[in-house]
Amino acid sequence: MSALLVVGDTFRIPELRHEVPLGVPDQFLFAEVDRSRHVVVTSFEVDRIVATGDITAHAFEEYGYDGLIAQGLSHDLTLREVFAHACAALGIRAARVPDAFPLAVAERLREAGVEIAADQAVFDDRRRVKNVAELAGIRRAQRAAEAGMRACADLLTRAERSNGHLAVEGEPLTVELVKLRVEEAFLRHGSTADDFIVARGEQAAAGHDTGSGPIAPGESIVVDLWPRDRESACFADMTRTFVLGEVPDELRSYHRLTREALDLAIAMLRPGVAGADVYGAVCEHFEAAGYPTGRSKAEGTVLQDGFFHGLGHGVGLNVHERPRLGRFTDNLVAGDVVTIEPGLYRKGYGGVRLEDLLLITDDGCENLTDFPYDMEL
Q1: Where in the chain is the domain with CATH 3.90.230.10?
Q2: CATH 3.40.350.10 spans which residues of the chain?
Q3: Burial letters for 176-208: b for 16+ Cβ neighbours within 10 Å, e otherwise?
């Protein structure tokens, strides 16, 4: 049986963070051999890693680190040699690695006689069922997302017309101001975000346009938040759509149909259900109302109106991970955390998207999202 190997740091490599639930900023090696888990790491991380559980931690010095430095090798070359020596000592002759495994390390291990094969699926499968620490982190991140959404809704609610524009306490109401308030809420709840979406008007129909500029009455404002919990490095994800002032009939219809789609999809979630089947049910719902979907479009065409994206995805140490709920698919398993995010859009005008975060349980699902769906403010 081949071993499993991962090389990197736990801030950028989710496969490592799942195995070693700590922030380790420097490159190290994780190996699982015959169900025994090992790390080869800088000496000052050894005690911290051992304290996390059933991992045997080896300092670099066990595998010739000092002598390699004395030879004048660079830091990178030294670590490659240390990892090769460690694999030999652990009896590793073949290993499966994730897609992001460093090429230079793979080449050195192959030179040392280790057969390396990329097998991302095995690492994805290990992360599908969330452990206790990850699920707790996802719940904290979700509370941060809801706090951010409340901050957004509060700011929008307090907007008033001033000189033909919307303003809050004399300051122009802009996407940038909303984002500032949302980020402050994230920080107060122990989370951060590299970016998120507050897309107004036609920006809301442009996929992952993160949004910018002044907010006007009567246009859709799609707010899609995915904060990351600092302690666990796990994400949450949620979306709501708001309109200031009178809601146009078109947007009101989009919202009704999208809420219906969300409800019917959530009702289908349970272990063993194929993500493609849930996606298909939502497509059928939108198609019956006269809107195109990714399922109904002609082959080779690019869909810009209607329901043009997937229905959902897994969430954990990545904001987008398996399982998939769309044209690509996975069967759900108990312990998955997934989003359901139907939407309707018209290019150049705007759109509506709603997104909840759900834990797949033994007999159904638990909705981790606690925030109203109201569009009117």
Answers
A1: 132-150+195-367
A2: 3-128
A3: ebbbebbbebbbebbbebeebbbbbbbbbbbee
Query: What is the distance in angstroms between the CA of the first residue and the CA of the last residue of the chain?
Result: 59
Low pLDDT (below 70) residues in the chain: 1
* Count of Cβ atoms closer than 10 Å to residue 153 Cβ: 19
Distance CA 290, CA 253 (A): 12
Domain topology for 132-150+195-367: Creatine Amidinohydrolase (3.90.230)
Place of tokens 């300092």: 59
Q: What are residue 60's phi and psi, to 5 degrees?
A: -50, -35
- The predicted-structure confidence for 179-237, as pLDDT tens digits, reads as follows 999 999 999 999 999 999 999 999 999 988 999 999 999 999 999 999 999 999 999 99
CA distance 318 to 336: 13
Three-class SS state of 169? coil
Tell how far CA 213 is from the center of its chain. Answer: 26
CB neighbour list of residue 299: distance below 8 Å, 6 or more residues apart:
none
Q: Residue 16: its pLDDT value, please?
A: 97
Quickly name the fold that domain 3-128 has: Creatine Amidinohydrolase; Chain A, domain 1 (3.40.350)
Phi and psi at 178, nearest 5°, equal: -60, -45
Buried b (16+ CB within 10 A) or exposed e, 30-46: bbbbeeebbbbbeeebb
Query: Whole-structure pTM over 0.90, yes or no?
Result: yes
Strand partners, 328: none
Q: For residue 84, what are its two tokens?
A: 């090769």
pLDDT 10s digits, 71-91: 999 999 999 999 999 999 999
> What does the pLDDT read at residue 274?
97
Which residue in this structure is represented by tokens 């705007």? Answer: 350
Q: Helix or strand or coil: residue 182?
A: helix
The vertex-374 CA angle with 169 and 318, nearest 5°, equals: 90
What pLDDT, on the 0 to 100 scale, is given for residue 329? 85
